[in-house]
Specification:
Layout: H1 2-15, H2 19-29, E1 36-40, E2 46-49, E3 59-62, H3 78-84, H4 139-142
Antiparallel strand pairs: 1-2, 2-3
Length: about 150
C-alpha cells in the first residue's frame, strides 16, 4: 500500500511539471492535484477537472501566474464561475455564447474593496469625533515651547 501512495505522488509531481514546478504550485495553491485541463478564460486562468476527487473538490482553477498571490475569485469569468460551482454542466470553452452576452451587460471588473479604487461615500455632515493625529517623532527636540500634554513620551 505505501508503494502505491509513492507511485501516485510521483505521478502527480510528473503531471505538475517536475519537482520544482510542483513545489511552486504547492506554495501558490496549497495543494497538488492531477487532472484534465478543461479550458482557459480570457484572463489566462486555467480550469481543471478530475472526477476521482469528491464533488466540490473535483474542479479547480489555477489563476494567471502574473497575479502571483494576489488572486481573488472576482478574477474569474462568470460563465466559468457557474461551471466551477456545479451550477451548470456545460463547459464555456466548448460551448461559447451560452449563456448569451447582451449589449447592456457590463464587462466583468475585479472587486476594488481594500484598494484605493474602493468606493468611499462623500459626507457633508461634520464628524462627531475628531481624529487623533499622532505627533511626529523627534518633535520635542525641535520645539521646546510645546505644552506638556502635546509632548509624546515613549
Amino acid at each position: 500500500m505505501p508503494i502505491s501512495k509513492l507511485k501516485k505522488l510521483s505521478q502527480i509531481i510528473k503531471v505538475n511539471g517536475g519537482l520544482k514546478q510542483s513545489l511552486y504550485k504547492l506554495f501558490i495553491h496549497d495543494n497538488l492535484k492531477d487532472g484534465k485541463k478543461i479550458g482557459e478564460d480570457q484572463y489566462g486562468n486555467r480550469y481543471f477537472e478530475n472526477n476521482r476527487y469528491f464533488r466540490g473538490a473535483n474542479r479547480w482553477v489555477e489563476y494567471n501566474p502574473d497575479v502571483f498571490l494576489d488572486y481573488d475569485p472576482t478574477m474569474m469569468d462568470p460563465e466559468w464561475h457557474g461551471y466551477m460551482h456545479h451550477r451548470t454542466e456545460y463547459v464555456p470553452s466548448e460551448q461559447p455564447g451560452r449563456p448569451p452576452r447582451y449589449r447592456w451587460m457590463l464587462p466583468v471588473e475585479e472587486n476594488p474593496s481594500g484598494t484605493r479604487l474602493a468606493y468611499t461615500p462623500y459626507s457633508t455632515t461634520t464628524p462627531k469625533i475628531q481624529h487623533w493625529i499622532p505627533p511626529a517623532l523627534g518633535l520635542q527636540e525641535k520645539d521646546k515651547n510645546l505644552k506638556t500634554q502635546d509632548k509624546c513620551e515613549y
